[in-house]
Amino acid sequence: MKNKVIPNPILPAAGVRRNIAADRGSGPPSGGQHDDNTLNPQGRVLSDHSTPSDALMRCRRPFVMGTFNACTVREEARLVELAHCAEERGVEILGVQEHRRVHPDDRIVYRRVERCTFITASAWRNEDQAATGGVGLMLGPRARKALRQVYHHTDRILIAEFSGNPVTTVIVVYSPTNVAPAEEVEKFYEDLATAVRDVPAHNFLAILGDFNARLGPEDAPYPYHDSTNRNGTYLMALLMEHELLAVNTMFRKRTGKRWTFQDRATGMLRQLNYILVRQKWRNSILNAEPYSTISSVGSDHRVVSMRV
Question: Looking at the record, which segments are called Disordered (predicted)?
Fold first, then answer.
């Protein structure tokens, strides 16, 4: 059950088959942000859909969000460094996987770190009682002010909603690995599909995740890998069913700007982390790519960010 806390161009991207993209027209997307027909002549009360001053998404005011597997921020120094890096790089919303902070109960925890706010759902303990997983959000001041509510959907899925025109819904996810039992991966994607279906069609939806999935050129225009693995097949099914895009495969980048993870034992590079948005918002994404700018936190992953 959901525990609700209310505190306050080009080429088709992953999720769009090339033959489908070729058949589509170029008309305006349906259900866009211009559906408000309420008139507001001078002196009249504003429409219910008018954008408040604390709105996250506003026309001509771009912002940055990203996803980052931290590999642990249990130590205070790592957490402070993460907040410092996010603020310094102007990342207003950062989805965090594997924070490995275990809470005494199921409540969502809010923590002020520097000028940021760190919101977490509890990690869990494995058979050896070691802290594992945990999803959360590092919010800058602008995003924190726009925050409406946060939901703990499952241990691997956290959902947040922000004021704006349109309203922004962010889902932070941490997928089982590619060698995890198939039923575990299937359950994760069933839970994620349920969460996506619950998001209103007119909301701007961003899924920030470590999907532990590889996409090949048959499924994405600019991937790092030559083929799609098992988890990638599940990911593609989600993209196709819900008309989503993996935005960090949309832009032509050199190979060195595509990988998101480096195996410390072998040095091998992989692309496992993705940001997903609905296809109708593809023209609102100004850029998306991984960066090594948060390497000082000590993770083997790079942050993937997009400018909206």
Answer: 20-52
**Phi-psi map region of 186: left, alpha, beta (phi>0 left; psi -120 to 50 alpha):** alpha
- Residue 55 CA to residue 66 CA, distance in Å, equals 18
| Cross-strand partners of 164 | 57
HSE-CB at 201 with a 13 A cutoff on CA atoms is 8
Residue with tokens 């070729």: 22
Q: Is residue 207 part of a domain?
A: yes
107 or 297, greater pLDDT: 297
Question: Per-residue confidence at 30, pLDDT binned at 50, 70, 90?
Answer: very low
* Residue 133 backbone class (left: φ over 0; alpha: ψ -120 to 50; beta: rest): left
Number of domains into which the chain is organized: 1
Tokens of 195: 């969460």
Burial 169-187 (b: 16+ CB within 10 A, else e): bbbbbbbbebeeeeeebee
Contact call for residues 237 and 193 (beta carbons, < 8 A): no
Contact status, residue 272 vs residue 212, Cβ threshold 8 Å: yes
Query: What predicted TM-score, i.e. pTM, was given to this entire model?
Result: 0.83
Q: What share of the chain is helix, strand, coil (3-state, %, to 5)?
A: 20, 30, 50
Asked, for residue 107, whether it belongs to a domain, the answer is yes
Measured from the Cβ of residue 282, the count of other Cβ atoms closer than 10 Å reads 18
Q: What CATH code is carried by the domain that includes residue 229?
A: 3.60.10.10
SS3 295: helix
Q: What is each CA distance from 185 to 89, 143, 213, 288, in whole angstroms? A: 33, 31, 11, 26
Query: For residue 47, what pLDDT band results from cuts at 50, 70 and 90?
Result: very low
